[in-house]
Amino acid sequence: MIRAKPRLGRRVLAALALVAAVPTAASDDFDMRSADAVNEGALRFLEAPPANAVHHHENRVRVTAESLRSGWVELEQCHSHMDAVPRSQITFREGYVRGLAIDTFSGIGRAWVEGASVQLENVAPGARLCLSARTRALRNTGNGYYSLSHGPYMRKFLDGYYPMHVTLDVTYPAAQLRLLDVSPERQPGFAHDEAPGRVKLDTHFEGELRLVFQFEHR
Q1: I need a labelling partner for 145 at 20 to 30 A (CA). Which of 48, 53, 176, 203 fits?
Q2: What is the pTM of this model?
Q3: Where in the sequence is the signal peptide annotated (predicted)?
Q4: Cα separations (Å) of 204 from 67, 130, 133?
């Protein structure tokens, strides 16, 4: 998750990272001009992207034959068009991440790995950061079925949700797994393309987004 200590009371802005809880960020750098249009709850997919760039959360997940035994998958993750905050962190659940490393960053004064987190200082508007790790994200649900779950993703301020852009590219061993289902289902504003061994997802939304991929062992 991405977390920052707010400098003004309890105002909170959030944008979720993979296999993480809700992150928070300082509110005093957030654009309050859009507050009247905030989504106050339910997930809503946006058929057209917002006029201005919003926090983009990119994920590449590689499921391997070894993942079927261990549950560990390979992750490459990038955050771009980040909101400006003086101090924040991207955190993962303890025990569910290995080999966490920062690959590149720009528009950030300082970035370093600390335990199961990436610590950030002086994040400028539009900053970008990419990291890599192994995460325990694949679950054997029994009888030859597997589940890959992500989220919830969100960008939250006070009691409302602001637009967020999420892309996800999942590759898996087509000789061993068959994709059965992607949830939520395909709809305007939520696109996913499927091919043997790969599924790609692209969405703009407001609210909380939870993704579930169901597989069957061949």
Answers
A1: 203
A2: 0.80
A3: 1-25
A4: 29, 20, 25
Number of continuous H segments (helices) and E segments (strands) in the chain:
1, 16
Task: Determine phi and psi for 47, rounding to 5 degrees.
Answer: -65, -30
Strand order across the 138-142 sheet: 138-142, 145-153, 209-217, 177-183
What single-letter amino acid sits at 184? Answer: P
**Regarding the domain delimited by 2-30+52-217, which CATH topology (the fold level of the hierarchy) does it fall under?**
Immunoglobulin-like (2.60.40)
Q: Quick: pLDDT tens for 194-209.
A: 999 999 999 999 999 9
Tally of CB atoms within 10 A around 122: 15
The string of pLDDT tens digits covering residues 33-55 is 344 455 556 899 999 999 999 99
Give the whole-angstrom CA distance, residue 113 versus residue 33.
34
Rounded Cα distance between 84 and 29, Å, is: 6
Task: Give the C-alpha distances (Å, rounded to integers) separating 113 from 11, 96, 100, 131, 153.
Answer: 26, 15, 7, 10, 22
Kindly state the helix (H) or strand (E) to which residue 132 belongs, with its residue range.
strand 117-136
